[in-house]
Write a structure and sequence with these properties.
The structure is a single chain. The chain has 286 residues and is α+β, with helices and mostly antiparallel strands. Helices cover 32% and strands 22% of the residues. It has 11 helices and 16 strands. The chain has helices spanning 11-19, 32-49, 58-64, 68-78, 82-88, 91-101, 155-158, 193-202, 248-252, 258-261, 265-269, and strands spanning 4-7, 23-26, 106-107, 114-118, 130-132, 143-148, 152-153, 160-164, 179-180, 187-189, 204-207, 210-211, 215-219, 224-227, 235-244, 274-275. The strands form 5 sheets. Strands 1, 2, 3, 4, 6, 13 and 15 form a 7-stranded mixed sheet that branches. Strands 11-8-14 form a 3-stranded antiparallel sheet. Strands 5-10 form a two-stranded antiparallel sheet. Helix 1 links the parallel strand 1 and strand 2 (23-26). Bound molecules: fe (ii) ion.
């Protein structure tokens, strides 16, 4: 079953595609120079964090930022780079997303936006099947955005992303199974995953080829996982999420920054979807 589709300018069709729990890829949406400002700052940040002035490429940063504490330091510091916040809130992308989704005003949870640097030496953010937390926590319309920042990607070298249509392809895909109660306001890990894994895998499709500057968009509640990097190159991507500021319920209940105010809100709002299970040791905590 097709989940991933490439679009050019037909945003009407893309909106419909996204609302039905699919993945839209807009090829070459960004120019390389638009991304280079972020990339260069990340390299300079790597120099500081790794205390190594000879570093000149992201590949070198990825090789050195392998210890968990250094990785977390790198991820957190990246969020505060003006080039990064400027990129994810640029008029180009915000206007496009507004037009695409018909949102009047968009919100971005900057605190969990991230410059992701995955490599075989640094698997910290290689995640198993999960849904992303919808930052407007009562929204079913939050979107996750990925922008690759290195020239090319292939399964053999840099891994990729896998998506699943399991659970009837509805946006609230959790209707057939339970969310693991984690309290972590970032990812919704799936409880009893082993029970559903073959169905999830069966209905999955991989995104393994992309280029620097592509714009990859999916609803935050679409099941997805990382395909780990196995080759020599890192996977370096800009990751962020957006929502609509003007959803009626969101405004009425004053749910702005609810991820901070009510970190367990999703679980409380959707108790039927949550079970208490013993957490397996996660390979990451940001
Ligand atoms: Fe995710």
């Amino acid at each position: 079953m097709e989940i991933i589709k490439h679009f050019n300018t037909d945003i009407g069709e893309a909106k419909n595609w996204l609302e039905n729990g699919n993945v839209a890829v807009f090829k070459d949406f960004f120019k390389k120079k638009e991304i280079n400002a972020v990339k260069n700052d990340a390299i300079n940040l790597g120099k500081i964090i790794c205390e190594n002035n000879t570093i000149s490429t992201i590949k070198e940063v990825a090789k050195i930022v392998t210890k968990q504490d250094k990785s977390i330091q790198f991820y957190n510091a990246c969020r505060e780079l003006p080039s990064f916040t400027r990129f994810i809130s640029s008029e180009k992308i915000i206007n496009f997303l507004k037009k695409l989704m018909g949102y009047e005003l968009i919100n971005i949870p900057f605190d969990f936006s991230i410059l992701r640097l995955d490599s075989h030496q640094n698997p910290l953010t290689n995640f198993d099947w999960h849904q992303d937390f919808p930052y407007n926590v009562i929204s079913k319309n939050a979107l996750t955005i990925w922008v690759p920042c290195l020239e090319s990607c292939s399964e053999k070298k840099t891994g990729g992303l896998k998506f699943s249509r399991f659970s009837s392809g509805k946006i609230m895909t959790v209707d057939s199974f339970k969310i693991e109660k984690s309290g972590e306001p970032n990812r919704l890990r799936i409880a009893n995953l082993e029970k559903y894994i073959s169905k999830i895998d069966d209905q999955s499709e991989s995104l393994i080829e992309w280029s620097m500057g592509d714009l990859i968009i999916f609803n935050s509640l679409v099941l997805h996982k990382s395909i780990p990097c196995v080759g020599p190159d890192p996977r370096f991507t800009i990751n962020f999420r957006i929502g609509s500021m003007s959803e009626k319920e969101y405004v009425e209940k004053n749910m702005y920054r609810a991820r901070d105010k009510y970190p367990n809100y999703f679980e409380n709002a959707f108790p039927d979807y949550v079970v208490n299970v013993k957490l397996k040791k996660s390979n990451s905590k940001r």
